[in-house]
Amino acid sequence: MALLTHPITILDGGMGQELLARSKREVTTMWSADIMLHEPELVRDLHYDFIQAGATVITLNTYTATPQRLQLNNTLAQLSQLHVSAIRAAQDAITLSGKTNINIAGCLPPLVASYHPDESPDFALSLDAYRQIVSLQQAAVDLFICETMSSINEAKAACTAAKESGKPVWVAFSLSDENPNILRGGDRLEDALNALVPSYTDVILLNCSRPETIEHALPLLTQSVAHSGVYANGFTAVDSLYPGTTVASLSARQDLNPVQYAQHTLLWANAGVTIIGGCCEIRPNHIQQLCSTLEQAGYSLTK
């Protein structure tokens, strides 16, 4: 089959839920940080599995290692250690894979809680926190992903810090499952795109939302940016996740196995999306299957 016009860059999948399945430790509100301290080899091995499945971009496992979250848990002194450990896990996985084409993405997440930007500090304090994270990661990463952004203000603070590194900056917005045109914090997606592109970035992704939700928003996304991406989650809903709770309260969908998820990714590619991966509940076998499905459909995957 002839190759289609645009190549697809493959991201990894979700870390937190898969690490839950692989670890025997009790889940905590600081789950990814807890794993980095006590079972970093699980993170290394999961990075490796995603690489073997076809991912050429892996993201550091530092989603909960923000100054604000650590301060709330009286563990701020571990900030540097957690980032060093996460960097080592990613680098070791790449070395084990023997591949030379793998990029590491720095992680700039919500500072306090996913989906609740109202819990984050004001812009100045947020910018300072993101600068701390960037300073810990920038020497080891190839790009930064400001991910699961749920408000314009949150995204601007993360982007500002990331841009100062001189590395490429991608922004991933999370959408309301009830209204695909609205970010989880209430801002309109159209306003967010206008506010961020091209002043802060020209690469916008949609993440940690249901695939069906994202598909409603794809026409606006692909018409607004030159490089768009999607990495959806596999949750039934996220309504029960609030600050102080854990992802153990969320349920996985039973109708989103690797083949079913891959069919969604084919829709995204056909819509013009150039970056595809997975978020929570999307595992290495999902990534392997979507790579196979996209290649069978005639898409070239970046190598």
Keywords:
303 residues; alpha/beta; TIM Barrel; eight-stranded parallel beta sheet
Can you characterise this structure?
The chain has helices at 16-22, 31-38, 40-53, 67-72, 79-97, 123-137, 152-163, 189-196, 211-224, 258-270, 284-296; strands at 9-10, 57-59, 103-108, 143-149, 169-173, 203-207, 227-232, 275-278. Helix 2 (31-38) crosses helix 3 (40-53), helix 6 packs across helix 7 (152-163) and helix 10 crosses helix 11. An 8-stranded parallel sheet has the order 1-8-7-6-5-4-3-2. The longest helix has 19 residues, at 79-97. The mean pLDDT is 92. By secondary structure, it is an alpha/beta fold. It is built from 11 helices and 8 strands. It has one domain (9-296): TIM Barrel (Alpha-Beta Barrel).
